[in-house]
Amino acid sequence: MPARVSLIWQEAPGLSGLDPAQVALAAGVELDDGGLVEAAVVTVAQERAPRGLQERLAGLPVSWLDLAAEIGGGGDAHRLARAATAVARAAGRAAKGTLPPVYAPQPAQSVLVAGAGLGALAAAWEAAALGHPVTLATPFGDAATPGADDDPQAVGLMAAQLPAQVELATECELIGLAGSAGGFSARLMGPQGESSQGFGAVFLAPPGELAPGCEIHGLNPELCVLASKLDPEDWQGPEDAWLHAAVLAGSAQAAPSYSFAAALEAALALAKRPRVQVSLFYTEARVAVPGAERLFRDCRAAGVLPMRVEPGGLEVRGGHTLAWFDPLLGEEITLEPAVAVMAEQSGAPRPAWLDNELTVKPWDLLVPENPRLAGGKTSRSGLYILGSLRGTAPGAPRRAEAAAATADMHARLTGRVVPMPAVRDQLCARCLSCVRACPHGVPQFVGFGIACSPAGCVACGICAAECPAEAIAPPGWGQPEMLAALEAALAVAPEPKMVLFACGQSGMPAASALSASGHQWPAGLVIFPLVCAGRTSQVLVTRALELGAKGVLTAGCHPGNCRSISGNLVAAAKLEMVQGMLAELGLDPEAVSFLPLASNQTRELAQAVEALAVKAEEA
Amino acid sequence: MNPAEIDTPVLIIGGGVAGLSAAVELSRRGLASTVVEREAAPGGRAGEFCCKAVAACARCGACRLGDLLAEAAARPEITLHTAALVTSAEQKDGLWTVELSPQPAGDDAPGPGAPLGERCSLTTGAVILAVGGQVFDPAGKSRFAHGRVEGVHSALELEAMLAMGAIGPGAMAPAKVAFIQCVGSRDAAGGRPWCSRVCCGYALRMARVIRHRLPETEVTFFHMDVQDYGRAWEEELPSLKEDIRFVRAMPGEVTAGEQGPRVVFAGPEGAPVSEGFDLVILSVGIGPPNGAGSLHELFGAAPDQDGFLAEEGPDGLFVAGAAAGPRSLNESITHAGLAASRAAARVGALLEAARG
Amino acid sequence: MRLNDCDPGFKHQVAAEPGGEGIRVCFGCAACSARCPVGANRPEYDPRRIIRAALLGRREEVLASPLIWLCSSCYTCGEVCPQGVRFTDVLTAIKNIAARAGHAPPSARITAELLAKQGRLLEVTEFENDKRAELGLPPVEQRPHDFQSILGLEPPPEGGEGEGA
Amino acid sequence: MKALLFLGCTVPVRNLNYELSARKVCQALGVELVDDPALACCGYPLKGSDQGHALVIAARALAQAKAHDLPLVALCSACAGTLAEAEHHLAHDPAAAEAVNRELEPLGLKYEPGARVNHLMRFLLSEVGLEAIQAKMSKSLEGFSFAPHYGCHYLKPAEVIGGLDDPENPQSMGQLIAATGARAVSHPRLKDCCGGGVLGADEELAGSLAGAKLAELNELGVTAMVLVCPFCNVMYEGQQKAIAKRLDTKFKVPVVYLTQILGLGLGLSPDEVGLKLNRVKPKELIKAFKE
User: Fold this and answer.
1) Which fold has domain A422-472?
2) What CATH number should be reported for the domain whose range is B3-133+288-355?
3) With the C-alpha atoms ordered D49, D53, D59, D64, is the resulting torsion angle positive or negative?
4) What share of chain C is helix, strand, coil (3-state, %, to 5)?
5) Residue B206 phi/psi, 5° resolution?
6) Nearest chain B alpha carbon to C42
7) If both were cysteines, with which of A377, B45, C43, D262 could B271 make a disulfide (CB 3.0 to 4.6 Å apart)?
């Protein structure tokens, strides 16, 4: 028995001129008179509702509807119709009631930092400062041992200042990890053997290593010195001649800027020695780190000769002669250096267990270059990867990364308790679709069923879209609720009806911005906000068409920009399947489509909706 | 110190990505903050940037401003004053007292936050300066003819043109576009001896957006060196080099031709060559924040050797984002995390000391 | 070319001359070449190339090159150089070294002699001063003697003067 | 207002029209030019082979100017530039100043920093001012068009003599031309070098540098090209015929000095500004201003 839904009108910018009673009437709901409420639609987002109202509605099925975001501009009648559709959609959802909320158990607060050096110490320091018990598992015998690419002094200072709640596990390595934010299980190998412990979050920051950053083959190893091992005092020219030194900062390809800057330091130190002539070899002068351009200039002012070579254009002859072409002089130059200083790149080997045990996913999916996962975050909720392993520049950026990652961790473990995805055990077929689908590692197969780790869920709903048994749902947004909302909205929407499934990271912010600027949407457009485009399921799209929608557009993030890594790709793939079905049925496959979008691409969204309306009009 | 004297634990000057991120990060740490924005709407420079995705996200981070604005609006710990100017700042007994005065703002200032109503003074435990960097005014390099020759635009103007759809099929369709790099960067003679870090990335990505919209358009990239830009950059470069003509030469000037601007540069033989383009884009660099001098005076923030604000100034003063040096949006967001952490530690220490 | 055979000291020598300080910081960005009016007419003349040869230490080649005397001293290169290298001045430094090494063109010696004799390049005789007086212009002194002392040159004997400039 | 006039090598012998018009214009604008017959060369001709002595020669002139306690104004851009650079150099390098003073001492001279050196045109603009100059104009040159040639040393190095004009987008000559009521013509080769600097080393090269601009202005058909430097005059007026011959073409581009047309605007006669002495004469201008 569906509940009776009340419309609770809260004024907000963008709603002026609308008559609440008319909206309620058109949407088929009752306007709230302050009396008893079974279920409700409120016209503002929850954060903006007054506290008294929030208290009044506590425990009831409520759709907090950012109504203004879906209305936009146009005449009074037009806006009324749009408001009615939006309210009807929200009411359909509210009438469905909700699953009893399943609250996350209190997540584990303790944090494991596995690694050493600046990144690891910064993370341990930050986590402790936020009140988390920290285990710092270092492969070394003490906390003060730096990674090869760290500043030893900075590391020593940080190690000396480590707060008391950091428990140091020396000569200890992480060898396996399962779980997600709030509920990790870590296998550690220490001097006393293997042990297993639970943690709320894990920071992985293995010590950095330095490797020659400049591929040049065939040079006599006796001539070569790594930049970090160079002692300039060892070199000076004889009384009456010059000693030639080559500093190699890129030959096959350009060195990264921090590596180039370190090579510049070495070149400058050498150039200051008596009668030492330094030639600096590079393909690109990478000076995009603070002070590097100055350093580059200082080097030249000190007499360092800049030798730009084409990638691969530096040749070694007889083990001791460098040969390259100088395009300006139009001739080949050769040099027999007394020493060749090699620029280095920092990095860290990837722990073997990461690839097999923790994830079935490749590294690039775990640590994608996704702007929404900057600052140490990974696709696995609660797992942070810092420093050399991530390939960030040593020094200051590592501290910033540790600080940003730790704040995220703290919010996850202590923030507002999120009702977690509920698995209706009696419906669950244990097919593990959700385990495979969840990009955040939240559902795990434990014992005989699925358990969701408490603090990892972002409610993207990709699991729910995948579950064939409708057994799993992000809080309150299972398939039945979605369908009820869709049906209610399409029942009210004027012809031609259309649906825009709008991702909360891209499509919906763009739509809100358009509405706020007075953009006039087609009257029959149902805007259906989703947390992530990945929540669109085949059922949802085909049901929209069955209910009379002439077109369906899903606006999700561009590939590589999805907060849930693959939600956009999943959505696009689903739509492609529906397109195939439509084609087989002899219907226009173009009636459904996926629009890759960024939240600031309002113009592109308006154009796509306009095109959708033109098609719907024709259909 | 009496904790009751504190109006807001942390005061953040600047409501761009760095300032908003600092506020969000503090909120994640459970600390309230007040953000003060000079303009009528928060967002700062990032609000003018276009999405640079073509087949996939270009990782420019321009879209993250929207996330931040939404999150800042949703978090009750964050108070946002727009159209507010800092008029004085004073530190006493470890606390900062900062006076704010309202600026004239438009009637319907968009976005979250409310214009500051009246002059007020706030006492706070920590101040984060997140005032951003200043984009180089191409008038400072008059040889590139910005404002003098039609068709010459700064990269910032191109951002807006691309965002508004002014370039593409059915709009302006230039046959030849040139990018001139290092305008106001790597310029020791001009008193700007630093690499602005972001220009190679944004220019090549906007070039790719133009090529994506208008596959017939030829794009030339005049540069000294290609800087690195993010982790996957090295893998991206080869395909960019196939798509775009890379010319390693700093152009000497832009002149007015009959058909449009002409770029004068050293040709492959060394002698000057003048080539016509429909559009010449000046990739302007990032400099120290506007009014760095007055902020320096107000807060005693020490400038570094290039005039950017040193990351840690006097007690309780922190700097986030491009005000401390050229940074991409993503880097500014991460960098703000560090300023937030330091500010939080500072406020924690103050409270602890107050408790005895 | 073998770099080991070049003279790394040459660039330091140029830098030690007044105006030559800038030479070492050049890394060949090509801004100067883009604007050099001489290069536009003589492709073999490229400021970058001259600096490059000097930086690499090809002393004799640079000093003996006729190209170094072709600079029109328009200063455009220095204005556009992002590194603030004033190529005109660098070349002046190089030319001064070349002159000391005996590579100066004959006109340099004649110029010095004329200045020593006349204090100016152009001779002012009574004829010129008469003409000036006709136009109401004041006379000009013909032989400021201190130039001989400054230049350490005796003026050539009367009658055996240079052919003028 | 007083200033010490630095004539240099060329003007008092070869460019009497320039000197004449400059003196008359200054008189009309209330600027008293003081002569010191002992002023001679600025040192520029020696720079390429012997810059040490070139600097001493420049310092000699600066010391003389200092003794008069007057600003030093030159008619020649190279003189003005060389002297300004020398002042800049010596004022910033005490060791160099000491070295030149060792050479100047036997001559009874001493260099001290502080000489104010300027080109006459920049001096008039900064000391008299464009508006005051314009206010004194009594005759209009409306209907005539002039192509300014700024020349290199009038604008550069900006670091030493800048401030008044942007070398990449110079305006001052155009403003002065416009002050007479005439039209200042901008053209693509506005900033080109005259080539005078290489005349001694390579006549052909110098000729092709100057020739390009002459050909362009010939095509444009201006009343005259306007100069502020006798060195540029050597190329554009003195060598004009020879250049045309070498380029196997014919052009006739009248050449005047800026002071000559300012003088006309100030009510002076063509004779008073020495137009008779111009080699490539601006015939229409002379005709229009004949009494």
Assistant:
1) Alpha-Beta Plaits (3.30.70)
2) 3.50.50.60
3) negative
4) 55, 0, 40
5) -70, -35
6) B271
7) C43
Name the residue of chain A whose CA is nearest to B341's CA.
A403
Fold match, A211-344 / A422-472: no
What does the pLDDT read at residue C163? Answer: 40
A-chain residue closest to B285, CA distance: A288
At C20 the pLDDT is 96
Give A168→chain C minimum CA distance, Å: 50
Q: State yes or no: pLDDT of A449 exceeds 90.
A: no
- Averaged over A276-293, what is the pLDDT? 96
Cβ within 8 Å of residue A6, ≥6 positions away: A29, A30, A31, A32, A37, A38, A39, A40, A41
Q: B135-285, superfamily in CATH?
A: FAD/NAD(P)-binding domain (3.50.50.60)
Q: What is the pLDDT of residue D191?
A: 95
Residues sharing a CB contact under 8 Å with residue B99, sequence separation 6 or more, in sequence order:
B86, B87, B88, B89, B119, B120, B121
Query: Going by beta carbons, is chain D in contact with chain A, meaning 3 or more pairs sit under 8 Å apart?
Result: no
pLDDT tops 80 at residue A520: yes
The residues spanned by each domain of chain B are 3-133+288-355, 135-285
**Which residues, numbered 34 to 63 in chain B, qualify as contacts with chain A under a Cβ-Cβ cut-off of 8 Å?**
49-51, 53, 55-57, 59-63
- Helix, strand, or coil (residue A67): coil
Average pLDDT on B111-133 reads 90
Q: How distant is the Cα of C2 from the closest Cα of chain D, in angstroms? A: 30
In this complex, which of B164, B325, B337 lies closest to A290 when CB atoms are compared? Answer: B325
> Residue A100's pLDDT band (boundaries 50, 70, 90)?
low
Place of tokens 């009874």: D108
pLDDT at B106: 66
Q: Which of residues 113-152 of B touch A (CB under 8 A)?
A: none
Residues of chain A contacting C8 with CB distance shorter than 8 Å:
242, 277, 303
Structural domains of chain D sorted by starting position, each given as residue range(s) with its CATH number in brackets: 2-120 (1.20.1050.140), 139-289 (3.40.50.11810)
**How far apart are the C-alpha atoms of A552 and C158, rounded to whole Å?**
103
Chain C contacts in chain B segment 9-68 (CB below 8 A): none
| pLDDT tens digits for range D228-270 | 999 999 999 999 999 999 999 999 999 999 999 999 999 999 9
Within an 8 Å CB–CB cutoff, is residue A294 touching chain C?
no
- Could you give the ipTM of this predicted complex? 0.95
Task: List all residues of chain A from 317 to 346 with a beta carbon under 8 Å from chain C.
Answer: 326, 328-329, 331-336
Whole-number percent of chain A with pLDDT over 70: 96
pLDDT higher than 90, residue B152: yes
**pLDDT mean over A407-427:** 79
Q: A335–C2: do the CB atoms touch at under 8 Å? A: yes
Nearest to B185 by CA among A287, D219, D129: A287
Q: Which residues from D are below 8 Å from C149, CB to CB?
A: 106-107
Q: Which helix (H) or strand (E) holds A245?
A: strand A243-248
CATH numeric code, A211-344: 3.50.50.60
Lowest mean pLDDT of A108-112, A355-359, A473-477, C63-67, name the range: A355-359
Write out pLDDT tens, residues B247-277: 999 999 999 999 999 999 999 888 999 999 9
Q: Tell me the per-residue pLDDT of A288-311, one tens digit each, with 9 for 90 and over.
A: 999 999 999 999 999 999 999 999
Please give the pLDDT value at position C161: 43
Q: Where are the domains of chain A?
A: 1-98, 111-208+348-414, 211-344, 422-472
- Rounded CA separation A491/A85 (Å): 8
Whether chain C has a CB inside 8 Å of the CB on A308: the answer is yes
Using a CB-CB cut-off of 8 Å, the residues of chain B touching D169 are 142, 148
Chain C nearest CA to D61, separation (Å): 12
> Among the CATH numbers 1.10.645.10, 3.10.580.10, 3.50.50.60, 3.40.50.720, which is that of A111-208+348-414?
3.50.50.60
Chain A neighbours (≥3 Cβ pairs under 8 A) are: B, C
Secondary element (H or E) of residue B28:
helix B17-28
Residue in B49, B57, B163 closest to A559 by CB: B57
Measured at the CA of A377, the angle between CA A374 and CA A379, to 5 degrees, comes to 110
Q: Among 3.30.830.10, 1.10.1060.10, 1.10.10.10, 2.40.40.20, what is the CATH number of C3-100?
A: 1.10.1060.10
